[in-house]
Amino acid sequence: MSLRYALLGIISKRRVTGYDVVHIFKQQMVHFWGSTHSQIYTELHKMEKEELVDHELVIQESSPNKKIYSLTDKGRKELIRWAIEEPLKSAKIKDEFLIKTTIFPILTHKEVLTLLDEVIERERITLEKTEAWRDHFKQDNKQDLGALLTVEYGIRYAKMYIEWCQWAKSLIEKGTTN
Amino acid sequence: MSLRYALLGIISKRRVTGYDVVHIFKQQMVHFWGSTHSQIYTELHKMEKEELVDHELVIQESSPNKKIYSLTDKGRKELIRWAIEEPLKSAKIKDEFLIKTTIFPILTHKEVLTLLDEVIERERITLEKTEAWRDHFKQDNKQDLGALLTVEYGIRYAKMYIEWCQWAKSLIEKGTTN
DNA sequence: CGCGCCATGTAAGCAGTTACATGATTCC
DNA sequence: GGAATCATGTAACTGCTTACATGGCGCG
After folding, report:
1. Long-range contacts of B16-19 (CB under 8 A, 24+ apart)
2. Chain B CB contacts of A90 below 8 Å
3. What is the DSSP string of chain A?
4. Distance separating alpha carbons of residues A128 and A78, to the nearest angstrom
5. Which DSSP symbol is given to B52?
6. Can you say how many angstroms the Cα of residue A178 is from the centroid of all Cα atoms in its chain?
7. For residues A90 and A68, is the Cβ–Cβ distance under 8 A?
8. Chain B: nearest CA to A59, how far in angstroms?
9. Chain D bases near protein Cβ (<7 Å)
10. Which residues of B touch A2 (CB under 8 A)?
11. For a FRET experiment, which of A57, A103, B151, B155 has its CA 20 to 30 Å from that of B124?
12. pLDDT (tens digit per residue) in B70-122
């Protein structure tokens, strides 16, 4: 049910199409939520039936027609109700690499270090992109507190991950087994 | 499909029942994976059909009978193949609180600070429990590298979350809006 | 006498992923 | 000529959650 509130949140800020939302998920929300176009379009239809959003059809010549969504009063009220009344559920994380971590003892020294280096590199790239996005975003002076806080979260998360990997490496390099 | 490898990983370390696995998920894997007994029992059945695990039935008097699982050769090979050959997929996170964060600008100053304090408290409790578990675990001198690394990850994650919340609070308290 | 622990399972429903489907325009 | 971008949608499937279902034992 939370995808719904993520969508309501995005629509509350600016006039967007389903297509725009897909990109906002990819650029700004990667660090804490994921979704695909098929799920997003479906949820938007459901929400429209329940009168939480409505749309305006824009006819275009050189590209396909599009639907620009906006919140209804009911939608806005429901979003705020959820935010302040609905009890907090803790994050659900599915991190494959941590599963691999649990079986480090049955892998060789070399295999483990290769895996760790791959992850460090992946996170380093993510960190770089996220920092670039934050800087670009700050220059725009957009004053979107929500976005500012969540990018910062993304940056801190990536840094933590890299530091943890480096700590793991040093611990493994110290050990003599395998 | 990753639940399967999480299960294979657990079974590779010790002789466990489905019931034990449920508790291992709750105690040691909360930080990076979640599952429920219904999904676990179902997956164990599937894996047994595919001959990745087998079980030994233990008849008990004062409690229900139980099935103790162990890896087959095929299971162990498949686990290692997955760990070193299967390309890394990045973590999938679903964090409701970060969705709430994106709409901070449409909430009042007070509502936002209440939410942040709730989360800080929740994470503080998690951190305390996780640190207690690590210390207890280190005293046992269990030498399980995988578990040592993942608890440490849990601790670092919780600390990062708390620090980020505190940074957010200071940023909001500095601001005069709302 | 009720709650929690041990221990297993099935069924129904919802959430999320991948594949199928279309089609013009723009850029290389 | 091929790939990427814009823009929307449906269908099939897998993964995950919640509810249903059983039953003895020990503790307060």
Report:
1. B16/B68, B16/B69, B17/B66, B17/B67, B17/B68, B17/B69, B18/B44, B18/B67, B18/B69, B19/B66
2. 122, 126
3. -HHHHHHHHHHHHS-B-HHHHHHHHHHTSTTT----HHHHHHHHHHHHHTTSEEEEEE--SSS--EEEEEE-HHHHHHHHHHHHHSPP---EEE-HHHHHHHTGGGS-HHHHHHHHHHHHHHHHHHHHHHHHHHHHHHHTT---HHHHHHHHHHHHHHHHHHHHHHHHHHHHHH----
4. 36
5. S
6. 38
7. no
8. 30
9. 5-12, 14-20, 23-26
10. 94, 96, 99
11. A103
12. 999 999 999 999 999 999 999 999 999 999 999 999 999 999 999 999 999 99
> Using CA atoms, how far apart are residues A102 and B31, in angstroms rounded to an integer?
12
With a CB cutoff of 8 Å and minimum separation 6, the contacts of B97 are: A88, A91, B115, B119
3-state secondary structure string across A143-154: CCHHHHHHHHHH
Does residue B39 reach within 7 angstroms of strand D, measured from its CB? yes
Question: Which nucleotide is closest to the Cα of A43 by its C1'?
Answer: C15
Q: Do B99 and A34 touch (CB under 8 A)?
A: no
Query: Nearest Cβ partner of A106 from B80, B107, B150?
Result: B80
CA angle A141-A144-A149, nearest 5°? Answer: 110
Contacts of A29 in chain B (CB under 8 A): 98, 102
B105–A145 CB contact, under 8 Å: yes
Tokens of A94: 């599915």
pLDDT of residue B177: 52
- Sketch out chain B's domains with CATH numbers: 2-85 (1.10.10.10), 96-174 (1.20.58)
Distance between CA atoms of B152 and B142, rounded to whole angstroms? 15
Alpha-carbon distance values, A7 to A2, A42, A75, B39, B134 (Å):
9, 12, 10, 29, 39
- Averaged in consecutive runs of 10 residues, what is the pLDDT profile of chain A (178 residues)? 97 96 95 97 97 94 90 98 96 97 97 98 96 88 89 98 98 76
Residue A92 to residue A85: CA distance in whole angstroms: 20
